[in-house]
Amino acid sequence: MTISGVWKMNIQGSVALITGANGGLGTEFIKALLAAGVGKIYACARRIDALNATVQLDPSRVVAVQVDVTKPAEVEAAAKQCTDVTLLFNNAGVSKDQGVISAPNMDGVRAEMETNFFGTMAMCRAFAPVLKANGGGAIINIVSLLGKINLPFMGTYSCTKAAELSLTQCVRAELAGQKTLVIGVMPGTIDTKFAVLYPDPKVAPEEVVRATLQAIVDEEEDIYPGEQATYVAGALLQDPKAVEKQLAGMLPGFLEQLQQQKG
Q1: DSSP state letter for 208
Q2: Is residue 66 helix, strand or coil?
Q3: How many CB atoms lie within 10 A of CB 66?
Q4: Is 8 in a helix, a strand, or coil?
Q5: Cα separation of 68 and 260, whole Å?
């Protein structure tokens, strides 16, 4: 869905903040934003030393900031430091690769929820006033296709991403009046080192980044980068139960195999 006239975003000269910026999709966002001519990027991670290589992409424009999104004091400190932000990318995420019933305990899903849902909420709450003070902007939440449908061998992760998608919709409604576009990015499996054990097909991170930056320019609220995400999103409109059964059929034996490979 595109909303006309809410915010005509010019990426060139803007100021971006990216969580989870120390590798994978976060690094690709930084490369693309630099190429697009942003004025400054705040690259955030739980450990500031993990951002050394990221800063070297352009030391004049990339600023390292320590932000663990599960720690309110660090989120609040970032909002006080980064008062010129107009683009907020909520990219930090955690996946424990577990089912709901088969998980040994609930510690894993609590960790996923703290980052994927509560962490994203904390960042939205902290930076909404910043964006308002700067005349508006955009919040980009990297939700995942699993916010739309549960993949049982990543069952608890899927649950937290469904919560994040609902959060995205609520924030979008609340911030529409302050000229803040809120985008939900829902790719399938992204081809990074974090997904090396996951089955194909996978979408290239560069493709996710290109689609996301275009969505900012086009004021598009929900996007499904890659063939996998596009196909599943369309299938969910046609026959959601068939998609649910297809994904459920992937579960037998795969969760155990994945855990063995990781172990």
Answers
A1: H
A2: strand
A3: 16
A4: coil
A5: 29
SS3 assignment, position 138: strand
Residue from 189, 160, 184, 206 nearest 250 by CA: 189
| Spatial CA neighbour of 51 closest among 20, 92, 81 | 20
Q: Are 87 and 123 in contact (CB under 8 A)?
A: no
Whole-prediction pTM value?
A: 0.91
How far apart are the C-alpha atoms of 33 and 24, rounded to whole Å? Answer: 15
Note the pLDDT tens digit of each residue in 97-147. Answer: 999 999 999 999 999 999 999 999 999 999 999 999 999 999 999 999 999
Which residue type, as a one-letter code, is found at position 77? A
Domain boundaries, the chain: 15-262
**Contact predicate 75/84, CB 8 Å:** no
Residue type (1 letter), 142? I
Strands 40-45 and 222-223: unpaired
Query: Which residues are the active-site residues?
Result: 157
Those residues of the chain that have pLDDT short of 50 are 1-7, 258
DSSP letters, 139-164, are: EEEE--GGGTS--GGGHHHHHHHHHH
Q: Which residue has the tokens 């996951």?
A: 198
For residues 178 and 136, the answer to whether their CB atoms sit within 8 Å is yes
Residue with tokens 């994040």: 164
Q: Which of 3.90.650.10, 3.40.50.720, 3.10.560.10, 2.40.10.240 is the CATH number of 15-262?
A: 3.40.50.720
CB 53 within 8 A of CB 234: no
Helix residue ranges, H only, the chain? 24-36, 52-55, 72-81, 107-113, 120-133, 155-175, 205-218, 227-238, 240-248, 254-262
CB atoms within 10 A of CB 253: 9
* 193: number of Cβ within 10 Å: 7
